[in-house]
Recover the amino acids of this structure.
């Protein structure tokens, strides 16, 4: 904190010490310094209080905003101090030195330059003149500057974007710090400069102009930080002086230098006086700025205050690290803005990191520990990460502070999908469980079953099992990877725990523990080889550095060398356990296969192939068989010399499987014989093995299509084929076709191959279509899934990417197939949970089974919706899907909404027709159920109306993009509704409304999406079907027509915002909460729906609201943003009809709305007098009732501690954690620095 030169000279002879004190800089005024040396307490009686600005004489010259000396040297003689700092081309030290030189010559001109610097840094175009500075108080100057605040936008230097302004903020803060540092020995004690600056900043920080408040608060806090540094230096100098004095006084009389004692006493007295003045300045800033601004309405201002108080407590802990200041950080941890909470946590991290300060934080920790623990679940991930790191520091300082419940609340975060949170939680877990080592572990081996890592690996397994999230092993490994990577890479110890026999007295691992250890081992190997987080964590693969690539290669080599030997042994031991074998068989995918040859490990490869063959023969589980198939696929790499050996083993295995399948199938399909269960099991098990291998290997040379098609055809004719055989036969046939397509796509096939593939594909699709009517639900689901995949693959998009030769393979579903697919969705997807009896195996109460069944239904619906999106089936078939949007919103709302969005991107008009078709279907169903005379307040009709409102929301805010689609929608519905309006058609009944008239009430939900010009055109189109008598009807049955006409007429003359809504929604920003209009009668939207304007009430002319003073938002002229011409391409209306005036009773006489002043926009002007305690700090006083006892409600004075050798510090007050003090508006209202 103090320069080395100062520390050195403090211990020299008195003359040198005096020189050090009085010659801090060459720019200081010698007269001023000499006056300071002779000043005593008597001279302080008449001094001015730091809060009032002193006027020491008239300002001389006209050099406003000039910094002397430095500007001429650099060719910037006309630049202000603000411009010099903004450009950043000059060193801050030289800029401050030039200002000090100017201050020596004429302090009024220099101080005026500094005042204008703060004004201009706020973005104000005005300037303080010499006359204003000489005759006006600070409050009057600030009021004048507020009136001249002519900003064009809401931005000001501290909020502007770009590298220049980011650098300006750091330069601004650095300038203040350097200014105080350079003036710390004399100028800041002249009772003029600091008094004026503190008074100005205090007044600006209380301004309603956000720019003034933000800039002055930042300046005041940085000024306070610089003063704290000065106070710390003074404290160190006082301690040094005291030690020198006592050392000299303790000498014998003969060697004691009385003149030195007198000089040291004088120096200590002067330092004490300086410290008193610094205390006054800091008290003025703390009470005048911090106490009010730490709860400002602007989050950035609150964050500045909390960040700086953390710096004070860390820098000068003897004076600031006590409960009187910690309470502000504790209260602000309840702030509603994440950035403020984040500053609280980072400030506390700096304190908890120093173990010497832990004793002073005990009371704070006990009071706010629960809040810190709860912040680990903060909605802002950055806050949660820092909260976990803070708890890690707390844990590092003491193990007894956090309870078991506190630790458990952090443990489960290692499974978080957000990687920074998980990594921080992993570090906490490692510190808690793995970092403590007892003395008995010192002599243990480094690796192996009896090693330290062996015990830690067991601890990891125990934790993994206790968390009951076994499928998230990859997440646990990824969380611990950065802090426990060496432990997770100790694969020798893991293998030893699995293969070696336990020592006498050692407890062996259970079956579940061995399974968990194998999974953790697999996840660690995958993490080491792939070097990226698991799926669901992270944005994607990042580019590895050279060091990371080398580590990756070294780990892969080591993995191969270890597991090439150990894997056959592990497979032999656990060959009957399906779960263990499945995980173990994934290890060869990460091998460096070249090592089998270079390391002379061929015998271990042979052993591995034998074990894989035995696993295939023993197991019929799909997961195990697919793992074997993928292992063969990984080993059969033509780039390595082991390919021939592995390929021979694979071919022998597949030859045996196919021969066995053909032999069993021939016996199984013999006519006249009833197949027994044993034959069916043999066929099924063999078919499972072939299907699993066909997924990753091309088995075309065995001609599996004929046998599988024959099997499916027989099952379709007889109807008694076991469902699992049918399912796997379908899947195997599907693989046959896909492998044939892959071969044809390569271009090396003949025309006969193309014809064969086309015939096989169409025959198989017809076979799957026939199975859609099967009585077995599982078979129907498999047939539906394969059909959707086949239709997608062989759709018109197969010829894309220059593959025109495949045009003959395009398969377009006919109307019957489309209808069957749609009926399947309606019958098997849109069902209640309790009705799904086939997918849950009777376990209706099992929550996991219900979730699995829902997941399966979502996949089925997504498969069909893809057909709609890619135009494989007609778009109008989506009407039956869209009409289920409200009823099944929780289960399929996201899928249906995304489908509507994609279809609108393809064809807006056809999508609008499909939406209306879905509403018409629901309306007709309602008519058939309730009859023609239904109640429009019934739940059915209200449900249709609500669905229409949801549909209208999906069109978005940009009305220009959806203009044509909305117009076509209205035309379609009007034709649907007005079929009885035409006088040439038969009447529904004399004097009765048409049958579909009520549908106009539903259509009115889309009227708000029409542009002003289009509303007129639609209204004229509607009148073509109306008679004069209809217009006069006022009975309840005619209300839909009246309501619809009103929705078209609302805002007909003044609906300017309908044109510019797309611009205003993106361009305007309302900063103040008071600018939000009061909304009443809002509908409640389910989660995920956005807000919308009220659609039932007509647009009324608003009351003219006064423009707020100094509004910073400039609205464009709406007339310039309106389209000049009315376009309605879908309506065939003649020019005569367009020019026909409206009847007098239909014309509007509303006062035109002036949108320039109709809505209040608040820019930089914001009133922070509103009670923000409830919003910003604590949501309820009840949460802090236990903190209210023994609190001191007054704001304390900054009392710097006495010198350390005297140890006369006063005791800490009992408790300062008083939340009520932030509600006490009487604390520190007036300025504390007043010059008398």
């Amino acid at each position: 904190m103090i320069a080395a030169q100062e520390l050195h000279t403090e211990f020299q002879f008195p003359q040198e010490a005096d020189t050090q004190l009085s010659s801090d800089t060459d720019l200081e005024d010698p007269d001023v310094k000499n006056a300071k040396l002779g000043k005593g307490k008597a001279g302080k009686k008449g001094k001015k209080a730091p809060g009032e600005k002193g006027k020491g004489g008239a300002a001389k010259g006209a050099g406003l905003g000039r910094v002397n000396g430095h500007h001429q040297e650099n060719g910037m003689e006309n630049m202000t101090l603000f411009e010099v700092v903004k450009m950043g081309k000059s060193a801050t030290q030289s800029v401050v030195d030039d200002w000090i030189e100017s201050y020596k010559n004429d302090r009024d001109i220099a101080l005026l330059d500094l005042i204008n610097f703060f004004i201009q840094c706020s973005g104000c175009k005005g300037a303080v003149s010499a006359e204003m500075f000489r005759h006006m108080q600070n409050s009057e100057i600030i009021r004048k500057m507020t009136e001249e605040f002519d900003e064009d936008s809401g931005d000001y230097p501290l909020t502007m974007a770009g590298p220049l302004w980011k650098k300006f903020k750091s330069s601004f803060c650095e300038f203040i710090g350097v200014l105080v540092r350079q003036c710390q020995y004399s100028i800041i004690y002249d009772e003029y400069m600091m008094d004026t600056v503190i008074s100005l900043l205090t007044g600006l920080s209380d301004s309603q102009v956000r720019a003034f408040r933000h800039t002055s608060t930042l300046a005041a806090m940085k000024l306070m930080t610089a003063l704290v540094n000065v106070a710390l230096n003074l404290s160190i100098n006082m301690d040094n002086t005291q030690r020198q004095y006592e050392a000299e006084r303790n000498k014998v009389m003969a060697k004691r230098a009385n003149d030195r004692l007198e000089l040291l006493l004088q120096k200590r007295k002067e330092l004490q006086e300086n410290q008193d003045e610094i205390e006054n300045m800091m008290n003025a800033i703390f009470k005048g700025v911090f106490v009010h601004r730490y709860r400002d309405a602007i989050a950035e201002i609150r964050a500045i205050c909390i960040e700086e108080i953390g710096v004070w407590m860390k820098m000068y802990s003897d004076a600031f690290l006590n409960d009187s200041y910690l309470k502000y950080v504790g209260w602000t941890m309840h702030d509603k803005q994440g950035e403020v909470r984040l500053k609280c946590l980072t400030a506390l991290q700096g304190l908890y990191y120093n173990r010497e300060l832990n004793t002073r934080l005990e009371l704070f920790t006990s009071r706010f520990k629960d809040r810190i623990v709860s912040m680990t679940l903060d909605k802002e991930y950055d806050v949660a990460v820092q909260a976990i790191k803070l708890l890690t520091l707390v844990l590092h300082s003491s193990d007894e502070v956090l309870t078991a419940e506190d630790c458990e609340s952090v443990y489960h975060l290692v499974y978080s999908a957000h990687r920074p949170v998980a990594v921080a939680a992993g570090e906490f877990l490692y510190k808690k469980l793995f970092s403590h080592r007892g003395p008995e572990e010192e002599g243990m081996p480094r690796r192996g079953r009896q090693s330290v890592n062996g015990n830690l690996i067991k601890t990891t397994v125990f934790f993994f099992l206790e968390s009951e999230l076994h499928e998230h092993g990859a997440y646990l490994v990824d969380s611990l990877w950065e802090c426990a990577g060496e432990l997770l890479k100790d694969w020798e110890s893991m293998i030893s725990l699995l293969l070696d026999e336990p020592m006498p007295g050692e407890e062996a691992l259970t079956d579940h523990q061995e399974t968990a250890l194998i999974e953790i081992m697999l996840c660690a190997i995958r993490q080491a080889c792939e070097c990226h987080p698991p799926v669901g964590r992270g944005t994607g693969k990042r580019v590895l550095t050279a060091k990371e690539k080398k580590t990756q290669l070294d780990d892969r080599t080591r993995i191969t060398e270890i597991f090439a030997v150990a894997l056959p042994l592990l497979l032999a031991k656990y060959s009957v356990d399906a779960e263990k074998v499945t995980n173990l068989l994934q290890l060869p995918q990460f091998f460096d296969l070249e090592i089998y040859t270079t390391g002379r490990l061929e015998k271990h490869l042979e052993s591995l192939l034998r074990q894989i063959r035995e696993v295939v023969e023993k197991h019929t589980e799909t997961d195990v068989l697919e793992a074997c198939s993928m292992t063969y696929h990984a080993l059969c790499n033509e780039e390595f010399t082991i390919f021939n050996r592995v390929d021979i083993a694979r071919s022998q295995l597949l030859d045996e499987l196919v021969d066995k399948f053909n032999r069993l199938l021939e016996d199984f399909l013999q006519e006249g014989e009833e197949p027994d269960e044993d034959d069916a099991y043999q066929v099924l098990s063999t078919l499972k093995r072939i299907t699993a291998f066909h997924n990753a290997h091309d088995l075309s040379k065995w001609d599996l299509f004929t046998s599988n098609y024959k099997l499916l055809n027989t099952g379709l004719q007889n109807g008694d084929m076991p469902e699992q055989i049918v399912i796997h036969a379908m899947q195997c046939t599907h693989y046959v076709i896909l492998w044939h397509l892959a071969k044809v796509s390569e271009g090396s096939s003949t025309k006969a191959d193309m014809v064969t593939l086309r015939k096989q594909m169409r025959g198989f699709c017809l076979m799957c279509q026939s199975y859609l009517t099967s009585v077995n639900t599982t078979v129907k689901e498999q047939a539906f899934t394969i059909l959707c995949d086949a239709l997608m693959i062989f759709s018109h998009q197969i010829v894309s990417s220059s593959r025109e030769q495949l045009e003959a393979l395009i398969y377009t579903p006919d109307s019957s197939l489309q209808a069957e697919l749609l009926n399947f969705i309606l019958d098997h997807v849109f069902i209640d949970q309790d009705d799904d009896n086939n997918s849950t195996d009777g376990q209706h109460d099992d929550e996991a089974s219900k979730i699995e069944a829902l997941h399966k239904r979502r996949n089925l619906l997504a498969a069909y919706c893809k057909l709609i999106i890619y135009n494989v089936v007609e778009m109008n078939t989506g009407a039956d899907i869209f009409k289920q949007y409200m009823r099944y919103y929780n289960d399929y709302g996201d899928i249906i909404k995304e489908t509507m969005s994609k279809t609108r991107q393809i064809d807006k008009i056809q999508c609008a027709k499909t939406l209306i078709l879905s509403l018409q279907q629901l309306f007709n169903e309602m008519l058939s159920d309730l009859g023609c005379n239904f109640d429009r307040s019934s739940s059915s009709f209200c449900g249709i109306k609500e669905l229409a409102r949801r549909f209208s929301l999906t069109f978005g805010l940009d009305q220009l993009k959806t203009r044509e689609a909305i117009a076509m929608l209205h035309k379609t519905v009007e034709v649907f509704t007005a079929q009885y309006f035409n006088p040439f058609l038969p009447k529904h009944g004399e004097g009765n409304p048409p049958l579909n008239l009520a549908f106009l009430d539903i259509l009115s939900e889309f009227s708000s999406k029409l542009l002003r010009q289009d509303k007129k055109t639609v209204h004229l189109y509607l009148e073509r079907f109306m008679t004069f008598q209809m217009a006069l009807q006022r009975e309840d049955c005619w209300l839909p027509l009246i309501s619809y006409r009103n929705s078209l007429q609302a805002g007909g003359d003044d609906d300017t915002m309908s044109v510019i809504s797309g611009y205003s929604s993106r361009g305007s920003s309302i900063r103040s909460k008071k600018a939000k209009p009061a909304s009443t009668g809002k509908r409640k939207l389910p989660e995920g729906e956005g807000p919308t304007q009220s659609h039932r009430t007509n647009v009324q002319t608003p009351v003219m609201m006064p423009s707020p003073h100094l509004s910073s938002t400039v609205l464009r002229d709406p007339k310039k943003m309106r389209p000049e011409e009315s376009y309605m391409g879908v309506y065939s209306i003649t020019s005569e009809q367009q020019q026909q005036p409206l009847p007098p009773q239909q014309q509007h006489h509303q006062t035109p709305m002036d949108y320039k002043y109709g809505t209040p926009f608040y820019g930089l002007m914001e009133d922070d007098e509103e009670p923000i305690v409830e919003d910003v700090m604590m949501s309820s006083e009840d949460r802090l009732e236990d903190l209210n006892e023994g609190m001191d409600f007054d704001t304390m004075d900054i009392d710097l501690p006495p010198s350390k050798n005297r140890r006369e510090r006063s005791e800490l007050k009992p408790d300062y954690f008083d939340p009520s003090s932030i509600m006490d508006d009487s604390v520190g209202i007036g300025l504390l620095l007043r010059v008398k």
Summary: The two ends are 34 Å apart (CA to CA). The chain has 51 helices and no strands. The first helix runs from residue 4 to 9.
